[in-house]
TrEMBL record:
Belongs to the class-II pyridoxal-phosphate-dependent aminotransferase family. The chain crosses the membrane at residues 58-84. The lineage of its organism: Eukaryota, Metazoa, Ecdysozoa, Arthropoda, Hexapoda. It is an enzyme of class 2 (transferase). It comes from Cloeon dipterum. SUPFAM superfamilies: PLP-dependent transferases. This is serine C-palmitoyltransferase. GO terms for cellular component: membrane; serine palmitoyltransferase complex. GO terms for biological process: ceramide biosynthetic process; sphingosine biosynthetic process. Pfam families: Aminotran_1_2.
Amino acid sequence: MALDKTEYSMSAAEKMSNGAVGRNKNGVRVDRLDGHVHQNGSVKKEKRRPFIESFEKIPLLTAATTFIGFHLILLMGYITSIIFTPKVAREKNRKGYVPLYDRFESFYSRYVYRRLRDCWNIPICSCPGSEVTLKDRVTHDCGWTFEYTGTRSTALNLGSYNYLGFAQAEGSCSEDSAVKIKELGCATASPRIEFGTQKIHQELEALTAKFVGMEDAITFGMGFATNALNLPSIVSKGCLVVSDEKNHASLILGLRLSGATIDVFKHNNMESLRQVLHSAVIKGQPRSHRPWKKILIVVEGVYSMEGSIVRLPEILELKRQYKAYLYVDEAHSIGAIGRNGRGVVDYFGVDPKEVDILMGTYTKSFGSAGGYIAGSKVNLTKIIFFPVVRL
Ligand SMILES: Cc1ncc(COP(=O)(O)O)c(C=O)c1O
């Protein structure tokens, strides 16, 4: 198996000799990034191993057949879209709002994805453990509607992110959850800000904040919505978001809804990020050339489709250099990497408080549902009470 090895090059901050704080060559204050985060958030200094990422090379035949297959399906989709009129609703009354789907996305979901989705998108009727029970169904109209056959099949689960094995039908996680649901019910029927906050929410938020090493955290019932609905309260028109090209759909939707200008940098490529930040700072806003109200870098801890780990120490250095803010989505890194399982900040031994917003979900490693954003008390209070916050 051929492997592509990328050795992590040590940044100025990391090359500094012992001592928790120093200055880089631009005179900017930088903290050493070679320790591990303790439970109380302090950083223990330790010699760091080089950061080596290895990716399997795709065999030419696999790449070629995938490419041809994908383009054939697209071609069939285009032909069907010309012959058959769409059966789906169009977006209406969205004057003043950004469209929820661009033209390609709506074409893709109607004419390409719909025909194929039954290959992987099948309802399950069991706990998503190492095996899943599928509810068999058939379609007679190319995936527009389905009929259940009444039978079930068991399949090996390669599709969910049960990193720590907590999502099982037996064991303390499911039994304790059942006890709590019996005691407290499974909904408050009110938003958090009205009457929906229970002691258990506050306990969860305090525990989450302590676990990720931040001052405070707010929790939400859905990971996707945590990104999609909170990003618009962090950035708005006049702000620039510098987003990794492989960011998750929930981040992309949140950024689109925010009305902020979005600039994309190449996946995990620090030179590309530096160039985008550099030109943003030099040019400012289009036409007026005023400085951006805020520049926010948005990345993920671990990218689920690529398996790559964000180059956090280098991003932190660029963040400081260009006075930007940083939002890290830890959906796939929390619980999964780092010496204490505390995510990518723990993995690199970075002080979590250097990141402005640490977002994560309970859906993957924790085998549950929902999401959180963690940060300083001040920032989070502003997110709750003000439509657009100044971090
Ligand atoms: C990076 C990332 N962020 C957010 C989410 C949304 O999380 P949830 O599935 O809990 O809605 C996902 C889901 O896969 C994800 O991969």
